Amino acid sequence: MADVIVAVDAMGGDNAPVEIVKGAVDAVVLRPEIKVLLVGIEDVVKAELAKYTYDKDRIEVINATEVIATEEPPVMAIRRKKDSSLVVALNQVKNGRADAFVSAGSSGAVLVGGQLIAGKIKGIERAPLAPLIPTEKGVSLLIDCGANVDARASHLVQFARMGSVYMESVVGVKNPKVAIVNIGAEEEKGNALVKETMPLLKNCTDINFVGSVEARDIPKGDVDVIVCEAFVGNVILKLYEGVGSTFMKKIKGCMYKNLKTKIGGLLLKSSLKETLKAFDASEHGGAPLLGLNGLVVKAHGNSTSKEITNSIIQCIAFKKQQINEKIKANLLDEE
Amino acid sequence: MADVIVAVDAMGGDNAPVEIVKGAVDAVVLRPEIKVLLVGIEDVVKAELAKYTYDKDRIEVINATEVIATEEPPVMAIRRKKDSSLVVALNQVKNGRADAFVSAGSSGAVLVGGQLIAGKIKGIERAPLAPLIPTEKGVSLLIDCGANVDARASHLVQFARMGSVYMESVVGVKNPKVAIVNIGAEEEKGNALVKETMPLLKNCTDINFVGSVEARDIPKGDVDVIVCEAFVGNVILKLYEGVGSTFMKKIKGCMYKNLKTKIGGLLLKSSLKETLKAFDASEHGGAPLLGLNGLVVKAHGNSTSKEITNSIIQCIAFKKQQINEKIKANLLDEE
């Protein structure tokens, strides 16, 4: 008997359905407590599944005749394509058949669909997207990187509390350090939003709030939960990827300069690969959209099976650790 | 006869006065059109100068008995320490004795002092700090990274126009591409400020506005002038440094793992050093604070003589290319 039922959007993402189906199979093979509802065009999904050996009772195919493309305007796509893999899979969460939903499809559609179909927990003002970002010491949770910008102070306070619960219970960081992104450590620094939020965070007795974090220090990994408004979070997330990829390109370029550097490159290759693996986002699964009824996980658009598997597996801790019950208990404290 | 007179804060920065004095000497040795007014505690500055051989007519020491420390609240420091090196040097610009001011001292004090003492060009609403950041293709101007956050749309439009003039006339990029930092390329994306600014920038006929730039693409260097509100700019600038330094640390770590990687590291060392030099901020001099009467240049707090020299030399193009006259002409167009 499966403990955790995950509805997976088999048609979402650049590598769907091949990598999504493989990721789902690997997840049920690796973890006995998982059952996957694989949602997509039945013939296509079944043809992919036929390649693998697995426990047939633990993957169920649910037919959905439509697919939402990345470039479609999210709200309209969700409303019109009632039989899309994304909408049908989210409905499994809504009607209680599934505990969680995983998709590598259109970010906009996942974010909008999550809020419209799964729905927000009563009392939660906004559902933040919270990816784990790699640091020198491990990972930190960056909350919010979603599509809803121009947050209010009360939103950021809820982000801090939800992020703290997730980091402690799912990622396993004890008493996680929570900080707000700011442009200096001094008390008087910051924009209007940060200045308004700072005293509210200081008053939260249920989180370990440590003050400001400057962007320069984020990669060091000294804080566990990094709270910011979604526009800023999006800039941080994307720049992290951009600077990292430019550095990698430069370093590879160095290695191909001449015979000497080519030999040097060969000698360093495996060590470099291993070290930089820690900076690979796919190791950490997808980003949760917190504060919803059920769990919604957004995997990268270019996810391979490995990220899909990790995204499905992270749903186990989410359910077993009763994250949503803890978030609801926090809301009661607030009143 | 010197063409460009630069007042230099000899006491500002982590390496003052040693590196500042050396940087000033190197600048006058390298470029015959420069005269430096070296402002600081006279005995100390003269003792440093005594180490070097240079044309005595082209460095003048101006005594200032006080020093503003990095941790002092900027406004109060500027108001109270009338005989500080920073205030006395800025007064040289104010009273027309100097064309420009260079300091590696407290960022806050340079920004506040620049606006209070040199003063803004009439019609300029806010003076942005605009550092050059390294990219795959060269450098881009990131405007604004200053201390005045929560900008309005009209400020961003002025930043775009001033940045475009600077990039074209001082850095020498013809018809520079101007873009605004956003969280997606689509028209409907962005926060309230970006949405309000976008149509205003499209209407600027004097700049080559190309639309949005996502943070992920900034390191690629496809756009020359990157316009953003100062909080966002500060996050971009600091994260750029932070991710870069973490990557360097990781790569160095790789090289010291075992004998094989040590040899690999030795073979790659010079190639790597050369490549990464392009990512060294000190190569590009300090960041100009634009829109002021005269030029104010903020060098990094940890500047060595090389960055000071480059900061002084960039004042030549600023004056010869008549940047402020061009900025004033733009303002007239606007009316």
Oligomer: homodimer
- First and last CA, distance of chain A: 38 Å
The major β-sheet of chain A equals: 6 strands, mixed
**Mean pLDDT figure of chain A:** 91
| Unreliable runs of chain A | none
Short description:
Two copies of one chain form a homodimer. Helix content of chain A is 45%, strand content 16%.
Folded structure, characterized:
Chain A is of the alpha/beta class and 335 residues long. Helices cover 45% and strands 16% of the residues of chain A. Chain A contains eleven helices and eleven strands. Chain A has a six-stranded mixed beta sheet, sandwiched between helices. In chain A, strands 5-6-9-7-8 form a five-stranded mixed beta sheet. In chain A, helix 1 packs across helix 10, helix 4 (85-94) packs parallel to helix 5 and helix 6 (153-169) packs across helix 7 (192-202). The first copy, chain A, starts with a strand and ends with a helix. The model of chain A has no long low-confidence stretch (mean pLDDT 91). At the A-B interface, helix 8 and helix 9 of A face helix 8 and helix 9 of B.
Set down the secondary structure blueprint.
The structure is a homodimer of 335-residue chains.
Chain A: E1 4-9, H1 18-30, E2 34-40, H2 42-49, E3 59-63, H3 74-80, H4 85-94, E4 100-103, H5 107-118, E5 132-134, E6 139-143, H6 153-169, E7 177-182, H7 192-202, E8 208-214, E9 225-227, H8 230-255, H9 259-277, E10 287-289, E11 295-298, H10 305-320, H11 323-334
Parallel strand pairs in A: 1-2, 1-4, 2-3, 4-11, 6-9, 7-8, 7-9
Antiparallel strand pairs in A: 5-6, 10-11
Helix pairs in contact in A: 1-10, 3-5, 4-5, 6-7, 6-11
